[in-house]
Each structure stands twice: as structure tokens, then as C-alpha cells.
UniProtKB/TrEMBL annotation, chain A:
This is Enoyl-CoA hydratase/isomerase family protein. The lineage of its organism: Bacteria, Pseudomonadati, Pseudomonadota, Alphaproteobacteria, Hyphomicrobiales. Coiled coil: none annotated. It comes from Microvirga splendida. Belongs to the enoyl-CoA hydratase/isomerase family. It holds the Pfam family ECH_1.
From TrEMBL, chain B:
The lineage of its organism: Bacteria, Pseudomonadati, Pseudomonadota, Alphaproteobacteria, Hyphomicrobiales. This is Uncharacterized protein. It comes from Microvirga splendida.
Amino acid sequence: MSASGNASVRAERANAVLLLTIDRPAARNALNPAILERLAEELTAADQDSAIRAIVITGGERNFSAGADIDALAGHSPASYMASPTRRAFESIASTEKPIVAGVAGFCLGGGCEVALACDLIVAGDNAVFGQPEINLGIIPGAGGTQLWRPRTGSGPQIGAALLGNFVDVWTARRIGLADEVVPAECIVEASIAKAQDIAAKAPLASRTAKAALRSAGMMDLQAALAHEVSLMAGLLGTEDAKEGTAAFLEKRPPQYRGR
Amino acid sequence: MTDHLQSPVALHRIEFSGTETDAERLARMRRALREAEKSAVLVLAGSFDGDVMEVEVIGELTGLLLEAPLPVFALPSGFIGPRGLPILLAADRAMIGSDTSTAGNWRNSPALTVLLHHRLGPLLARAILFSPESDLLAVLTECGFAIRSSDPAADAREVANGLAENGIGRRFKRSLKASTELPLKEALAFDVWSSRKAQGGAP
């Protein structure tokens, strides 16, 4: 695995998987503007890099992120928050085109939970705790925390999180669909990479297109989303990967996808 | 009294007093779980007698024990009353001396129904709850949850030493938790990750 990065986010490569590790343990990986901007930059670059087929965002085996840096949050006025790099960074993370796996252990609260929910799959360590405690600070989640639970969990847990600031332990998170897999916390990085490698082994154009189709569910009504799905599928049929996938199936051999 | 200093490292032991309040007992349990960070087993010994003073606190204490990251052994002395029974059933194993028996109206114990169901299964739970003459400790012993012993402390030490090796007791506890909370195949996958890590294997 090759590595690069500053003190707060480490970027490493494991074959076709980009591993981004939030690395601010003294603050339980609290998200400051620098971390969020760095994540956004790495994700934007990953979308342009054909060698990267899937991404993992993790905080390691102790904490994913205990939330947004309160100092940074307290410094905002209504006007400055709307135009802040923090807000733009969250938008950038949410609009990443390649599949992202969140590897969540320990605290996954507030802005940290919103980052995890912006990912496509959530692998959780058995010490993970999810929550949106913003209501206890006299504010509300401002980067998806009142919206992104619902597609996974339904209304009840979404309301409990937003109105009561309820914390959800990992087992409950798995039961309600907030987490997709539970592993021992010390295995969180390996398990998340393994999940991302499973995704990376699929046809990259199809993975990216499937993500686009999945995202349309929240952006358009069902009929429009179904029509969008048809057009996306039609677009894929002309790709080399689609031909390789069907040929490999008929010839009973593993496919070799090239992302073309 | 917390006598971990007199106990082998593998075993962290707290001794319940018959005079402490439920809230004091809960606070001691919280502290013991923090202090037992490096121990293989937490042993709860001493008085399990008496009536419940604060139902909510007993509920909290039981919940805390069910979340304990290490195996918990109950070693009650003398009588087991409504106050001590939930603690006994929330433990992973009970080691009972020849002088130990139930006392008082133990059927009034908070959490009894739920714990019996989860620990012993629906059939045995019903057999105990709906048979007024049932000997609870005899059933617990017969089904393997409890063992009768002439020296429960020595037995606990011996088992704890075995569970200390490579943290296997804690690993068992985490996989048991996963088995309780996850569907079978997901729990198996959890245990495979855990075993792989314990053996130092690559994913």
C-alpha cells in the first residue's frame, strides 16, 4: 500500500482502492475545515483517476469521527455558514461518483455520521455508536443528518436521531439498516478494504452508473427514476466492459474489466 | 470491597456487601468494569440476598452486565434474593457453593422473565415461571448455567486462567454478543474476522 497525506487525513492506495483515513486521534477525529476540504479534494481527484475503482473512508479502529469541530462551528454566522468551505466539502463528498465504503468504529456522531451516511456502504466495528447530537447544542444537523437516515432506517430512527439526539449502538444500527455489516473493531480497516475490493472487482463503469441510478431515487419521482435507469442501462450496453462481462459469462471464465 | 490486588491478574473480583444500596452497587460495577480492562474474567461475589430497593437501578445494572466486554462469573454466598437474582442471571456463569440457596419471593425479581428466556430458552423459562415448586438453582445447575462447587473461588480462578490465554475469553464474549444480535451467517462472518485477526492472518 502506498501512502501520502498531511497530519489529519492519510491517503493510501491498496490496488484499485483508495483508502482515506481521518487521523486526528487527540480530538477523536473531530472534523475541522481542513479535514473536510482534504477529503473533498481526494474524492474529486479519485473521480478523475481511472486506476481507482472504489474508496474507503475510515477513522481507524478507535473512532470514525466524534463530529464537527465545535470551535469551527461556533465561529460561523448565518451568512458565513451558507458559503463556508465546510458546507461545500460535504456537498463534494456527497456528489462523489465512485462507490465509497465507510469503515466506522467508535464514535460516529454529528458531522462524522453525516460523512458516513454520504457513503454508499457502512461497515461498522462492534464498538461503533451513531448519532446526531446537534439538538443538544441548540442547532440541527446541517449536512444531511435530518435526511440521510430515513432512506436507510425509515422515519422512526431518523426522528429519534434529529429530535432527541438518540445514540444508536452498532447492533441496533445493523438491525435498522444504518450499518450494512458488523465486524470486530480491530478489523475495521481490513474489512472495509475487502468490501471496497469486492466493488472494485466489478465493471467500473457499471459500478459508477449503478451509483448514479441509486442516487436518482432521492432526486426524482419513481417514474422519472425508472426512465433514468433505462437510459443509463442503454448507455452501458455499448461499453467494452459490458461485452466482456457477457462474453466471460458465456465462456465460463472470470471477466477482465478495463473501464471502457 | 474490590480485591483485584489480591487476585491473580486474570481475575478481577468485586465483593457485594449486603448493606450497600443498589445505586452504590451500580457505581462499583461501573468502576470494576473500567478497572478490569486487563483482566480475563470479572467475578461478582458476596451477598446476593435482599429485596430490590430501586427497580430502575437494577435494570441499569443488569444492562451494564449484559454489555460487559469480558466473561462475568457470579459466586453468590448464602441466600439469593430478588435483588441478586438478576445479577446472577446476567452473568455468563454461576458457581454456587453448597450453602447457597434462593430466598424470599425471588419470582418478584425485576428482569427475571426476560433473563430466564434469554439465558435458558423459552421452554425452561416457562417451566420455572409456571411451576410454583420449581427449584431454580437445581434447574440452573441441571441445564449447565450454574455449577455446584465445594470451592467456587478456586474453580473461578482455574477457569479464568484458561480464558486469559491470548484474550480468548474476551473473544468468546464478543462473538457471543454478535451471536445474540446478528443473524447466524452474519455472526459467523464476525467470528471469522475475529479468528483471523487472533491468528495474525491477512484478510
